[in-house]
Design brief:
The complex is a heterodimer. Chain A is an alpha/beta fold. Chain A has ten helices and ten strands. In chain B, a hairpin with a 2-residue loop joins strand 3 and strand 4. In chain B, helix 2 crosses helix 3. Classes of the chains: A alpha/beta, B mainly beta. Chains A and B meet through helix 2, strand 6 and helix 3 of A and helix 2 and helix 3 of B.
């Protein structure tokens, strides 16, 4: 489904991503674990093709097509989407309109906006007519973001810390959304700090200093993350000894 | 007796094009006034609402009274239009909303064929103690932009009264728009001024709104949402004056520029006379927010479609 080959990104002369090699298979849930500042969100931005995130070197392949030079829209129309950690807010745009915009990519026979809202634990009658603006709480806005990516029936969804600042009840919703996407054949790249969320993945990778240190079983990577990364003080520059131990 | 001939039909059609329900114009349950250039084509009062009009060479004089305590259930429709390509229309109006009354006006101004039309509105508005008045004015212009819209309003909101207005000019080219609104608020009075304009081609937009918070606990908001595209030039001047204890005023301005030739400026002015008043402002001028656009692009919209969605939402 997705393959990153030697992807590096430099910003202001500093390496943000370094020679990232990563593969996500069809229908796979792949979690990315890493401490703050290790390049996780940058990785999602590079895959989505956001402005300012074009790889300095390396290529990105999606369903065996080189998408490195494609625009965000072109990637989205091929089935890739991103749920931001801090989603944008839109004055005057209703939740119903926002979800319908995403739903156009899904085609017939997919979940309705109402069903997508229910999946994320929101009562449709209370939310469809509301604006996606500052009147929504952070948690509500993040749930609507999840409903929006779900409405799109994506082939690959990049979830950037969807569990950030969310309670246990909402984490159940996140897990349900991820499973729904995976059941429909979609793949999920899940960026998270939460080991319990990461544990639902089929595989996981640990990111440190902008590079993938290790990929494998989620439990194994979670242990590696717990033992090696959470106390890591060398953000953006893992020690060579650390790298050599992996 | 009023004439409901071809001018009425043309104005009613424009009214429908701008989202109105023309059948309400002749429904006796609705207060309404329809004016073409300087002719009053139709006028209907309802219990509690009295409308007087006088034709003058360049427009009309209108006096609108709502009796104290009256609650006008249905919106009162005001339709003003100039159908020829050229002309001057002056609407000199007085609104007097009696103590404790409630009323909502829906005004539609239509100039579908304008090439050189000047539309002047000069309104004196008194909202009595504890009364509520809503006034929504939607403009429907043709594509040429040959209209000058010059509305002036002097608004007095008495103790505990509420005045809310919304000015919308989204359809067609704006032409020259110069809004000049000043509101004086007594104790615990509330005033919300909201302007939404989509400027295109060589449009010139000047919004000048001033809130004088004279009474204790008075609250005012002046909110502007402007999109300036092509060679449009936009200027928003928002003023709040805190003259009393507990007065709260806020100036909120967003101007979006589309294209390299449009220009926008915002000038907030906050004057605190009583140290116990609190005034705030926020202004954002620039292109459409990148994150908003990229979010919609990540849902499959093209960049142009995404910008359109953001802009239309903001101007809604």
């Amino acid at each position: 489904m997705l393959k990153l080959s030697g992807v590096s990104l430099f910003a202001g002369g500093k390496p943000i991503l370094r020679d990232v090699n990563l593969e996500v298979a069809d229908g796979e849930i792949h979690s990315i674990l890493g401490a703050n500042g290790t390049g996780k969100s940058t990785l999602a931005s590079v895959i989505m093709g956001l402005s300012g995130y074009r790889p300095t070197s390396g290529r990105i392949y999606f369903q065996e097509e080189d998408i490195t030079d494609l625009s965000i829209t072109e990637r989205a129309r091929r089935g890739i989407t991103l749920a931001w950690q801090e989603p944008a807010r839109f004055e005057g745009l209703t939740v119903a309109e926002y979800l319908k915009t995403a739903q156009k990519q899904a085609g017939n026979g997919w979940l309705s906006p109402r069903e997508c809202l229910s999946k994320v634990g929101l009562v449709p009658e209370k939310y469809l007519a509301r604006a996606v603006d500052a009147t929504l709480s952070g948690g509500e806005r993040r749930r609507i973001e999840l409903a929006s990516v779900l409405a799109m029936r994506p082939k690959l969804v990049l979830l950037d810390e969807p569990d950030s600042g969310i309670d246990a009840l909402s984490i159940e919703c996140i897990v349900d959304v991820i499973r729904t996407i995976a059941r429909s054949g979609g793949s999920v790249l899940l960026i998270t700090h939460h080991e319990e969320v990461a544990a639902m993945a089929d595989r996981a990778s640990s990111l440190c200093g902008g590079t993938v240190l290790k990929t494998g079983d989620p439990g194994q990577i979670a242990r590696f993350f717990r033992n090696h990364c959470q106390e890591c003080m060398h953000v953006n520059a893992p020690l060579s000894t650390e790298l050599s131990r992996v | 007796m009023f004439e409901t001939g071809s001018d009425f039909t043309a104005i009613a059609k424009s009214f429908e094009n701008s989202g109105g329900d023309a059948s309400a114009l002749l429904d006796k349950r609705f207060g309404a006034m329809v004016v073409s250039h300087n002719r009053v084509l139709y006028s209907n009062g309802v219990p509690g609402l009295r409308m007087e009009s006088e034709e003058i060479p360049t427009g009309i004089k209108a006096r609108i009274f709502v009796e104290p305590g009256a609650e006008i259930r249905n919106p009162v429709h005001l339709c003003f239009g100039v159908l020829p390509k050229e002309g001057l229309q002056e609407i000199l109006s007085e609104f007097d909303i009696g103590e404790g009354a409630k009323v909502r006006f829906v005004a539609h101004c239509t100039f579908p064929n304008a090439e050189r039309v000047r539309h002047v509105m000069d309104a004196k508005i008194r909202v009595g103690r504890g009364a509520e008045m809503d006034y929504t004015e939607t403009h429907y212009h043709g594509p040429e932009g040959g209209v000058e819209v010059l509305p002036v309003a002097r608004i007095q909101v008495e103790e505990g009264g509420v005045y809310r207005s919304q000015f919308k000019l989204i359809e067609g080219a704006a032409g020259v728009v110069k809004l000049d609104y000043q509101a004086d608020l007594d104790r615990e009075a509330v005033c919300e001024l909201d302007a939404k304009i989509y400027g295109k081609r060589n449009d010139q937009i000047v919004i000048n709104e001033s809130l004088h918070l004279n009474g204790e606990g008075a609250r005012g908001l002046a909110k502007s949402r402007i999109v300036a595209s092509d060679h449009c030039v936009s200027e928003v001047i928002g003023e709040a004056v805190g003259n009393a204890a507990g007065a709260r005023g806020h100036i909120d301005c967003v101007e979006i520029l589309k294209g390299p030739h449009a220009r926008a400026s915002a000038v907030p002015k906050l004057v605190v006379v009583d140290e116990r008043a609190k005034l705030t402002h926020e202004a954002a001028i620039g292109s459409v927010d990148k994150k908003q656009v990229e979010t919609l692009m990540a849902r499959g919209l093209s960049e142009d479609e995404a910008v359109d969605v953001v802009v239309k939402g903001m101007l809604r």
